[in-house]
Design goal:
Length: 488
């Protein structure tokens, strides 16, 4: 029985191990995973798709629209008021059924704001009282409606909507760079805690060894009790540090798993990256690429056009309003469908209407002046935003170049501190230095390791901040928008 129970336990443990996936991720692996399934990346895609369909809707406005409207039957049995030949009025019973169908083709004209339409229709009336049927056919009619001296919204849409879409494409790339930056931040949170645990575990092992050696030396009278107590205290503190960093590590692991869409039971180990390939970046190239690729550049251009549109709208909707309508077509009337199409007659219509505001107590003038003031404010804000943006690009590029120099120093300091601690430990074991000097060497080693991780983190985050503001891959020397696939 015990044998079978042990076998079941073994199989159960094997199932658990198989269910638990072990991930050994580099920073590039984490970034690729975040692009694929992180909530932030999915939200960015959703926002872009919304802008994409807005642009598709705008394009459809300029394409011919074909529609069919029909009223299969409409039965009316009621009394209606009529005027008799002598001029008096009377109510008479009415009993009829009507039906109709109309096919319409419409084309918007963006340049003028007008609209062409071509229509064809058929109507039928059944009079129940007289048992008669009549048809009214419209084989074809062509109409054109044109606003005159008014605001043309279609013309302004043709200037603004492509800018909205271009901005949305660039904003999607920028949002993905935000995902990269967040991934790197979480990655280094784990990496820092992981490195600290490894250091503290090593320190704990060294403390155990030194404390045991110290106990032997104390018994032989080779060290004082004070030094033995210091060794014991160091051993206790190293154990406490292992527990503290284990908590920090668990929290950091939980956050990055959640962000990357991983299962809580999955095991994760991160591999430290090397420094970015690009040692230095040209500030002038960064400025050129930022002004060409960043969505802010398109946004500022769009804001300027929208401000001009608002002025045109205020002028166009607060002045003379007029509209021109012209129609030409054919109509036929008969008792049968075929006969109604046999001898159609011409149908013409021409209409011109005008509305002239005579007294509005300055309302139109006020609306126009407000729009002009808003335009001036927009121009001022655009200039300020452009200046601030240019300065930010220069600062980000300069910071990255400086960060790389700091990384070289931190790397060297980490190597030196590791070597120094190794030598100090050997000298302590030989009795040539005291415990205080060994503790100083260990503290310096731990600080240098932490500083190296922090500077490496800052170097990568600064690099991706520069990528975000320029939307440019300095390694491949190519705009990031041209590298995006599967969305555009």
């Amino acid at each position: 029985m015990k044998k079978y129970l042990a076998l079941l336990c073994f199989l159960f443990a094997a199932l658990i191990c198989n269910a638990q996936k072990v991930y050994k991720l580099t920073m590039d692996d984490a970034i690729a995973l975040a692009e694929k399934q992180s909530p932030d990346a999915l939200l960015a895609k959703t926002k872009y798709r919304q802008s994409y369909w807005r642009y598709r809707y705008y394009e459809a406005v300029y394409l011919p629209a074909l529609s069919l409207s029909a009223n299969p039957f409409n039965i009316n049995r009621s009394f209606t008021q009529i005027i008799l030949p002598d001029g008096s009025e009377a109510f008479v019973p009415q009993s009829l059924a009507t039906s109709s169908a109309n096919l319409s083709l419409t084309q918007q004209v963006g340049l003028t704001g007008g609209a062409f339409s071509v229509n064809s229709g058929l109507q039928r009336i059944d009079l129940f009282n007289t048992q008669t049927v009549s048809y009214l056919s419209t084989p074809v009619n062509i109409a054109y409606s044109q606003p005159v001296l008014t605001y043309n919204d279609l013309r302004w849409q043709k200037r603004i909507e492509p800018l909205y879409y271009q901005e949305a494409r660039k904003q999607y790339v920028s949002d993905i760079e935000d995902v990269h930056i967040k991934t790197i931040t979480l990655f280094f949170d784990v990496l820092s805690a992981q490195s600290s645990i490894e250091e503290t575990q090593l320190n704990k092992a060294n403390s155990d060894t030194l404390y045991k050696l110290g106990q032997g030396k104390y018994k032989l009278g080779r060290i004082a009790e004070n030094e033995l107590l210091q060794l014991e205290l160091d051993n206790l503190n190293s154990g406490l540090q292992v527990q503290q960093f284990s908590i920090t590590y668990s929290s950091a692991i939980g956050k990055i798993k959640s962000f990357l869409g991983m299962e809580a039971a999955d095991s994760l180990y991160l591999k430290a990256p090397v420094a970015p390939d690009t040692a230095q970046v040209s500030i002038s190239i960064a400025a050129i690429q930022a002004n060409s690729n960043n969505p802010l550049s398109v946004s500022l251009q769009r804001q300027g056009v929208e401000a001009s549109r608002d002025v045109a709208k205020a002028i166009g909707t607060n002045g003379i309003q007029s509209n021109l309508f012209a129609l030409y077509g054919l109509n036929g009337n008969a008792g049968t469908v075929t006969s109604s199409y046999a001898h159609p007659q011409d149908q013409e219509q021409f209409q011109f209407g005008i509305t002239l505001p005579l007294l509005d107590w300055g309302k139109a003038h006020g609306a126009i002046e407000m729009a002009k003031a808003q335009q001036q404010l927009a121009i001022t804000n655009i200039k300020k935003s452009k200046t601030d943006f240019d300065q930010e690009v220069v600062l980000d590029a300069s910071e990255y170049n400086l960060q790389n120099q700091q990384l070289i120093i931190a790397t060297k300091a980490n190597t030196v501190s590791q070597r120094r601690y190794y030598i100090a430990k050997e000298r302590y074991l030989l009795g040539k230095i005291g415990i205080t000097d060994l503790n100083i060497a260990q503290t310096d080693r731990d600080a240098a390791q932490k500083s190296y991780i922090d500077v490496l983190r800052n170097s990568w985050i600064t690099f991706y901040n520069l990528r975000k503001i320029t939307l440019y891959d300095f390694n491949k020397q190519l705009p990031l928008e041209k590298q995006v696939t599967g969305v555009f």
